[in-house]
Design goal:
The protein is α/β, with parallel strands linked by helices. 22% of the residues lie in helices and 38% in strands. The chain folds into 2 domains: 59 residues, Signal recognition particle alu RNA binding heterodimer, srp9/1 (2-Layer Sandwich), CATH 3.30.720.100; 54 residues, Signal recognition particle alu RNA binding heterodimer, srp9/1 (2-Layer Sandwich).
Amino acid sequence: MTISKATPYLIVGGQSERAIALYQAAFRAEVKSLQRFGDVNGSCPEAQKQRVMHAELTLGGATLMLSDGDGETPSPGGVVSIALNLDDPAQAHESFEVLAKSGKTIQPLFDAPWGALFGVVVDELGVSWMFNCAKS
């Protein structure tokens, strides 16, 4: 078996709109597709029709997918961290600060012993982001 790619898929417990806005601000993410439960299943409960069933965002050359979930799936946090490899220290600082503003800094960005800028932040939705950026 060959795995060509693994894509993070966040279930954000009804917070997709908030997550999309946050990731657009932090990473200049672009929404490539967005489907609501009501678009796919007109017979779903009225309260679920406007919930995001699936969204696909691009963050530079990377893909991130997310969903509001079915209302029974737990929100992310604690057990998984999304590791980002960046190539622009200024953009790394900017993105980190946007997430940290409403989230929690675990490890501020610093010059790591392996020659990169490194830091960890948990955003307001409980998603952990590990930043690793080659120094210019």
